Amino acid sequence: MDIRLATINDIDAITEMERQCFPPEEAAEKDSFEKRLIVFPNHFWLLEDSGKIVSMINGMTTNIPILRDEMFEDATMHMEDGQWQMIFGVATLPAYQKMGCASKLMEHVVEDVKAQGRKGIVLTCKESLIPFYEKFGYINEGKSMSKHGGAVWYDMRLVFEEL
Fold first, then answer.
1. DSSP 89
2. Widest Cα–Cα separation across the chain
């Protein structure tokens, strides 16, 4: 399996994966992915199996230390030199789930973001996924203020080193 950054040419496969992995009220739409791929393509990682996109992680960078709901739709909030990598979504095609794909991609993303000299990574997740993120060193900071998709979210933070 290979890891690479996404391009605008991947938009249909990305949009379809999002549709398969998230409920409609949580899933990003094609136009949202288009904005993300135009504004912050260097923060959109893909895992491929023989050329087929099977997993993705995407998000923006900012100096705001908390993931805010408006960030999902407003790509202009991205700051290329931001200290925090926000993660908007981690998705793996259903046929590839429970095979370590998301873990392999997350390990790569963590190393990539660390190499960029950022303070760390911030994401929100549902309660059932807290243990998945904790195995990478993320700390559960409690229930999030996020109302995204009407779900209950938890703030998770991975801090590389105190700067």
1. E
2. 41
Strand ranges across the sheet with 52-58: 2-5, 44-49, 52-58, 89-92
pLDDT tens across the length of the chain (163 residues): 999 999 999 999 999 999 999 988 888 899 999 999 999 999 999 999 999 999 999 999 999 999 998 898 888 899 999 999 999 999 999 999 999 999 999 999 999 999 999 999 999 999 999 999 999 999 999 999 988 888 899 999 999 975 4
* Those residues with Cβ within 8 angstroms of residue 36's Cβ, 6 or more apart along the chain or in another chain: 28, 44, 58, 60, 75, 88
Pairing of strands 139-143, 154-159: antiparallel
Q: Which residue has the tokens 């200290």?
A: 83
Residues 75 and 3: their CA atoms lie apart, in Å, by: 23
Residue recorded with tokens 């009220």: 25
Where exactly are the structural domains of the chain? 2-159
Class of domain 2-159: alpha beta
Residue 48 dihedral angles phi and psi, to the nearest 5°: -115, 145
